[in-house]
Amino acid sequence: MEKLEKIRKAYTEYVLEHGTPPPSVYQFAKKQKITEGEFYEHYPSFEAIEADIWLAAFTQARQTVEGDDVYQTYSVREKLLAFYYTWIEVLKGQRSFFVFSYGRIRETSAQRGSPLAGRLGQRWMASSVWKPFKEAFYDFSRDLLAEGRESKEVEPRPFLSNRYADGLWTQTLLLLDFWINDVSKGFEKTDTAIEKSVNTAFDLIGRSPLDSLFDLAKFMYQNR
After folding, report:
1. What's the pLDDT band for 108 if we cut at 50, 70, 90?
2. Average model confidence (pLDDT) for the chain?
3. Which of 11-20, 71-80, 158-167 has the lowest mean pLDDT?
4. Does domain 1-44 have CATH number 3.30.70?
5. Where in the chain is the domain with CATH 1.10.357?
């Protein structure tokens, strides 16, 4: 674990000082006084280091909120809000690195001809750097959505329920993009964006007048 953290720290310092990844694993390993073999014991590539850092930020945020006794009393909407606020605080601790990595992800996607739609594109969203983070977030969001169905905060809908987690992932990347570009004092606009986006999400996936109308139509049809 100590060597893994050393590699991760050295890589972070290198990219922030040079604005680019090391030219080769050989040169990077030599500078850290380790062999290439020792490097590959922990990471298959520099992208894997970045992926590990993104995952670590998510894991730290989730463990922090779930370790708070008060969190357990929250509604699902409040739990997601608490996660996002905590996650952004974690990202702030290494903002320079995450801005660098984020820029690399977008640049790489553009070079591969990613069909960007506004700020989002399928290849950009599916970057290999985000894959472990994405998988962990999906596990987290599915747990929240299952809890929401039990508490009636989330409305099961044919064909749509299975897409709720996708929507939350897209929302997460939109909030990340907003924070990366936020120049307000203390990133206060990001806090507002989090509140508004989560409230809107739960307004959409929660029960609405349209659901009541659908239930009425279904009842009338079945009892005509």
Report:
1. confident
2. 86
3. 158-167
4. no
5. 46-222
Q: Is residue 194 very low, low, confident or very high in pLDDT (cuts 50, 70, 90)?
A: very high
Give 46-222's CATH code, choosing from 2.30.30, 1.10.357, 1.10.3470, 2.40.128.
1.10.357
Phi-psi region of 43 (alpha: psi -120 to 50; beta: other; left: phi over 0): beta
